[in-house]
Design brief:
Layout: E1 7-11, H1 18-32, E2 36-42, H2 48-64, E3 70-76, H3 79-86, E4 90-95, H4 108-117, E5 122-124, E6 138-141, H5 146-162, E7 166-172, H6 189-210, E8 216-222, H7 225-231, E9 238-242, H8 249-253, H9 258-263, E10 269-272
Length: 278
Amino acid sequence: MSAPRSFLAVGVDGSPRDRTAVTWAAVAAGSRHLPLRLLHAQGRRFDRAGADTVSAAAEHARIVAPAVEVQSRALTGDPVAVLRDQSRDAVMLVLAPHTGEPLEAFGWSTAAALTASAPCPVVAVPPRRGPTRTAGAVVVGVDGSELSEAALAFAFDHAAAAGAALVAVHAWQDAGGDRVDDRAGGFGRVEAEQAQERVLAEALAGWTEKYPDVPVRRIVVHGPARAALLARAGTAQLLVVGSAGRAGLTGLLHGSTSQALLYELPCPLAVVRADGAR
C-alpha cells in the first residue's frame, strides 16, 4: 500500500503568471489542509534569481492563505525532470503555462510533457484578466474507461474539499459517424440515449456513495466530448479529464491545436492519468 500524498506542489518560474498558479494552489492547499510546496527549476547553475523567485511566490501564497504551511525549493536541472521528481508525493502539481518560452519558463510544452509523465495529476491554470476563480462547480468528463475512473476520483475529492458541486459530463457519438436509426423497430435515439445514461449512472454509482455530501449533476450529450466539456467550463472552478480515453477525450489534450486550446480554457484544467492518481 502506497503512502498518502502529503503536499500540494506548484511550479513557479518568475513570470507574472506565477501569481495565478500560486493563488489557485494556495486556496486548494487550504481546503485540503495540506502544505503548499513551491518548486523552481533552473536549467543552468543556481543563482540569486531562483531564490528571489520562490521567495516572492511564498510571500504571495502566505497572503492568499495565511493558515497554509508554505515550503519552497529552488533547484537546478531540466524543469520537466525536476518537477516530475519533486512532485512524486504530491496530490497535484499546479502550473500556469504561458506562451513564449525562455529557457527556464514553464510554457505549454513543459505542461504537455508533465501531463504525460508526472506521477500525480497536473493542473494547468490559464491566464485571467480578473481574480482567479475559486468558486463554481467541478466539471468532469466521464466515458466509462479506467482513465475516467481516475478523473472521477480526483474530481470528487477536489469537490468535497472545496465544498463544490460536481457536474459529470458524458458525451457520445454514433458508431462510425452514422446517424442513430430513429425508425420504429430500430435501435433509435431514445434507446441509445437511455443506454448512455446507464453508462454514466454506473460510472458514478460508487462515487456518489463515497461522497454523499457532494451534489452531482449528470449530463449526457450527443456530440464531441471536447465541445461538451468546454461549453460547461465557463463558470467552473475546475475541469477534470483523463489524459486519454474513449468518446473523444483524447482530442482535448492532443493534436495540433492542443497548446492553443489549453491557452484559451476558461478555467483551470486537471489532467489525470490512471497511473498518476491516488
